[in-house]
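Record 1 of the preview.
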Amino acid sequence: MEHSAPADSSAGENPEVEWLYTQKGETFGPVSSVDLRAAAHLGFLGPDDLVCRKDRGKWMAARSIRGLFKEAG
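->
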């Protein structure tokens, strides 16, 4: 599975990384990588929602985070 996200933009490689995310204009977090992956798996976090590593400050679409969503097909 190839993605254009930077190597440090992976949910799951470092469980101590904290993330923020937005839904419907509201910001949530910080949450752990484990909780972010669970939110995506359970459908609470969608591919078009924005996420940001707490220590980076750069917002991006959740779909750009390697390993956050399973590849279709």
